[in-house]
Structures are given as structure tokens and as C-alpha cells.
Write a structure and sequence with these properties.
The complex is a heterodimer of chains A (329) and B (67). By secondary structure, chain A is an alpha+beta fold. Chain A contains twelve helices and eight strands. Chain A starts with a helix and ends in a 15-residue tail after the last helix. Chain B is elongated. The chains are: A alpha+beta (329), B mainly alpha (67).
């Protein structure tokens, strides 16, 4: 290494702090060390690939535990691993950790704390005891909803209508005790207004889930003031962003996303994997400095080094440096 | 005509370009400190990656010709 290059030193400040900052936010460790150019390069490149991938994958591709596929569930069932009957009864209602396996792609995403830490927090929230069907509990709700309303007409035909509107529920005293009652008022795709009366909640999905909508079914007694037979409301209440992003998917939502995105699903994953793996380099660079040295040797320097191959061994390494420019990869 | 269709279509192969740019820059930034060295090495690496992947694509395209 030439004299000019050896004189260039890189101050790493506290390398552990820098590495930690780079883990939390790509490039942050370099900014902390005052290595602005590299901080910008790392931050822009890694975050661009990461958010591009997340956008392509509709923010549903970062999770540590993935649900078992159908054939894997069959094997698990034969091995007596879980209560299949209970799960198949309404899989949306039971966040079930036993029917999952580690998503290997998460290992590549994990070096970016910006997504891996929220993913771990969301996993903990998703599988917590509180994130279950609240059908037996009393609560009040006033939320925008979409869904379908099915009932039997005067002629005995099954009628299905789509809707979009507002769902209001609250605990009331019903014929057989306390039950959730309320109204749904909205419009169908043609703009026709209607209102249904709800008498009893059948099921409601967990408040935290990877799907955009929290599923809900309830019994309907009246449509626009007229009694109806076998009225059922199948609704979806939009979850807040914090209750659905980075949440482990169930098998239905994962298959839905696969079907919707097609080839872009693995592409989106690859973007996030590469971003994560690149951040390993970023973290390592923040911790120990550049692998080859301060800069590339110039052509004349290369020629000089070839003429004097033993010169380097006679030169002692510079003392008290944070990152040696003579280090090799 | 095929090449025109390939260029116009939302082909996943185009995504390799931004990926190669990102990989080249971050990898080169982890090797050197001086901005000029990083940029020069990144440009060289980008073309190396692109040429290598294009060659692989060409070979696979030739092998699958007529299938």
C-alpha cells in the first residue's frame, strides 16, 4: 500500500454503537461516524430495495412464522400435532402457532431491524391471548365495513347483496339474554341505500391479522324495516395499519396474496432478501471499516507495487488507527 | 419483433437492473472509503453483473429456442 493511502484514516468512533445503528436503520451507523457519502449510498440503496420489495409484496411478505401448507397440515394431523377439526371450523378466528413453520426468507430480512423488530412485535401481538374472537365479549363498534348480506326472499329464493357502509353494534338485552345488536346502513354498488337490523353476533375475527379486513358474521332480522328470513351479514371491517402490517399471515391470506401477486410475490421477497443481506455488509463496514482500504490503487501504484513486492512487509502498520487502510478482505 | 415485445412487456427481467445497481454500490462501498473509488468500482461491478446475467439469459434463451 502506498504512503498516500496509508495516511488516510477512518474514524469508526464506537464501532458497536455504529453497527447497532446500522442494524436499526441502514446507513445510520455511517452518519454517526461522519462517513456521510457511504451513509447516503447505503441508506438510499438498501431502503430503496427494501421498500420497493415491500410495495411489490403489498407489505405482506415480512413474517417469521408461516402457516403450513395443506399437505403439511395433513402430515401434522397424522402426527397428532393439533386440533384440525377446531381449526377448519373457522380458521380466521384462531391464530394458531402450532401449525406454523419458520419462514426461511425472514433470516435474510432479519438484518434490517427497521422491519425485523416490528415483525417480531407483531408476531407476539398476533399470538397473544387477547387476539382471539371476541364473540363472547361485549363491546361497542362503529366502523366502516364492506361485505355481503344474504337472506331468503318472499318467494323463498336466496338473495345476496353486496354493500359498503357503516356498522354499529352495542350490547343489548335480547330475547334470550344479552347479545350484540345494532344496524348496518350503507349502499349497494348501484348506489341504492338500505339498512339492516342486526340481532346477534355469530363470529368475529381477531382484531390483529394480516388481512385488510377483520371478518365478522351476524344475524339479521330486518331489511329496511321489513322482517327477513335467514338473514346473515358477512362483513369485513377495515383493520388499522398497525394491526395488519408485518402480522404473520394465516393460510388463506397467504394463498390469496400468492394468487393476487403471481410472479411478483417471489420477486418482492427477493428484493427484501437482497436488501437484508446487503445490510450485513453495511453493518460490518460500520463495525470494522472498509475491507480493502481507503481507496483503489492507481495504475502507477500497482506498477510500483509489482516492482517492489516485499516493500509492504517492511512497513509497520500505522499505530492507533480505527480502521487500518492496509487491511485485506 | 420479439425483442420489442420483450422490452414493452412488464417483464420481470428488468428488475435486475435496479437490483444490480444497489448491489454494486453497497458492495463497493463496503470495500473502499473514497467516493471516487466506490463509484468506479460500482460501475465496473454493475457492468460485470449485467453482462454475466445477460450471457446466462442468452444461453437459456438459445437452449429453449423452439420449445
Amino acid at each position: 500500500m502506498n504512503q498516500d493511502s496509508e495516511s488516510q484514516q477512518v474514524s469508526l468512533k464506537n464501532p458497536v454503537v455504529a453497527a447497532l445503528l446500522s442494524f436499526l436503520l441502514p446507513g445510520a451507523g455511517h452518519f454517526y461516524q461522519g462517513r456521510t457519502f457511504k451513509g447516503i449510498v447505503n441508506c438510499v440503496c438498501v431502503l430503496t430495495l427494501l421498500f420497493w420489495g415491500l410495495s411489490l409484496g403489498e407489505w405482506g411478505i415480512v413474517f417469521r412464522l408461516e402457516p403450513l401448507q395443506a399437505n403439511e397440515r395433513d402430515i401434522a394431523q397424522l402426527q397428532g400435532g393439533f386440533q384440525e377439526g377446531e381449526r377448519l371450523a373457522n380458521p380466521n378466528l384462531i391464530p394458531d402457532r402450532t401449525n406454523t413453520k419458520t419462514h426461511l426468507g425472514f433470516l435474510a430480512q432479519a438484518p434490517i431491524g427497521l422491519i425485523s423488530i416490528p415483525a417480531m412485535i407483531q408476531e407476539k401481538r398476533y399470538y397473544s391471548d387477547g387476539n382471539i374472537s371476541a364473540v363472547r365479549e361485549e363491546f361497542e363498534m362503529n366502523a366502516a365495513a364492506i361485505g355481503k348480506f344474504a337472506y331468503r326472499s318472499d318467494k323463498g329464493e336466496r338473495v345476496l347483496e353486496q354493500f359498503e357502509g357503516t356498522l354499529e353494534l352495542s350490547p343489548q338485552q335480547g330475547e334470550f339474554g344479552r347479545e350484540m345488536q345494532g344496524t348496518f346502513s350503507g349502499t349497494d354498488p348501484q348506489g341504492k341505500k338500505f339498512e339492516v337490523m342486526i340481532e346477534g353476533l355469530n363470529s368475529i375475527g381477531p382484531p390483529i391479522g394480516s388481512e385488510t379486513y377483520q371478518p365478522l358474521t351476524c344475524f339479521v332480522s330486518h331489511l329496511n324495516g321489513q322482517p327477513v328470513e335467514d338473514g346473515v351479514l358477512l362483513a369485513g371491517i377495515e383493520r388499522g395499519w398497525l394491526d395488519r402490517v408485518f402480522v404473520p399471515p394465516n393460510i388463506q391470506s397467504l394463498e390469496h396474496l400468492h394468487g393476487k401477486l403471481g410472479k411478483k410475490f417471489p420477486l418482492a421477497e427477493v428484493f427484501t432478501w437482497i436488501a437484508g443481506l446487503l445490510n450485513v455488509l453495511v453493518i460490518w463496514d460500520a463495525y470494522s471499516g472498509p475491507a480493502y482500504g481507503y481507496r483503489m490503487p492507481r495504475p502507477e501504484e500497482q506498477t510500483a507495487n509489482e516492482d517492489k513486492p516485499d516493500e509492504k512487509t517492511d512497513t509497520p502498520p500505522p499505530a492507533e488507527i480505527s480502521a487500518s487502510t492496509t487491511k485485506t478482505a | 419483433m420479439n425483442w420489442l415485445l420483450l422490452a414493452q412487456h412488464d417483464n420481470l427481467l428488468w428488475y435486475i437492473l435496479p437490483l444490480a445497481v444497489g448491489i454494486s454500490l453497497v458492495y463497493s462501498a463496503s470495500r473502499y472509503e473514497e467516493p471516487d473509488s466506490i463509484i468506479r468500482r460500482a460501475v465496473r461491478l454493475f457492468f460485470q453483473i449485467t453482462i454475466f446475467m445477460s450471457t446466462v439469459f442468452g444461453v437459456l434463451w438459445a437452449l429453449s429456442f423452439g420449445l
